[in-house]
């Protein structure tokens, strides 16, 4: 799956030089993050205008429409994570009201899909990592802060400053004993 500054999203197969599907044509907001769900049957695309769109991967048409598309953040959606069986999604981004990390339920109507919004990260959340064994979300912000959330209780557990500049990357070890942060500096 590829995404570009021009907003185009294309899917390729290893053995074929031509794209299989063009999910989104050029002329849209820049792509900020893309993932397949754990089952490999859906893909999600976050963009610079705050939207998250989700497609079924097994499309037969050349330009399929997303089955879900909604504005998660008022300025930008920088990252997201499929949680559980892909019906629950966490997003990070920047919103005017500082609700910069959100939980969404894809099985309800778009007007009611926001389950919880965390007010955190002045100037926006840049990255997000899900720890399924512990049911935690880890987010990094533009000011170098890390927040750890318990998604079962929907509360922030810890906040600390890890860097002097924006957190650009988060990685979690497979046993979920440690996580690593990377920053703009």
TrEMBL record:
The keyword Transcription regulation does not apply. WD repeats lie at residues 160-185. The keyword Coiled coil does not apply. InterPro entries: DmX-like/RAVE_component (IPR052208), WD40/YVTN_repeat-like_dom_sf (IPR015943), WD40_repeat_dom_sf (IPR036322), WD40_rpt (IPR001680). Pfam families: WD40. SMART domains: WD40. Keywords: WD repeat. It comes from the Eukaryota. GO terms for biological process: vacuolar acidification. GO terms for cellular component: RAVE complex. This is DMXL2 protein. It comes from Sitta europaea (Eurasian nuthatch).
């Amino acid at each position: 799956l590829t995404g570009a500054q021009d907003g185009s999203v294309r899917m390729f197969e290893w053995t074929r030089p031509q794209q299989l599907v063009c999910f989104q044509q050029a002329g849209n907001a820049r792509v900020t993050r893309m993932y397949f769900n754990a089952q490999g049957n859906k893909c999600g695309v976050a963009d610079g205008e705050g939207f998250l769109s989700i497609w079924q991967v097994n499309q037969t048409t050349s330009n399929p429409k997303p089955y879900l598309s909604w504005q998660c953040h008022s300025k930008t959606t920088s990252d997201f994570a499929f949680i559980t069986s892909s019906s629950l999604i966490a997003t990070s981004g920047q919103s005017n009201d500082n609700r910069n990390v959100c939980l969404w339920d894809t099985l309800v109507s778009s007007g009611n899909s926001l389950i919880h919004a965390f007010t955190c990260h002045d100037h926006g959340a840049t990255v997000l990592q899900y720890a399924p064994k512990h049911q935690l979300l880890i987010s990094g912000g533009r000011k170098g802060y890390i927040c750890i959330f318990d998604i079962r209780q929907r509360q922030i557990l810890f906040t600390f400053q890890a860097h002097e500049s924006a957190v650009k990357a988060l990685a979690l070890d497979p046993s979920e004993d440690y996580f690593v942060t990377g920053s703009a500096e």
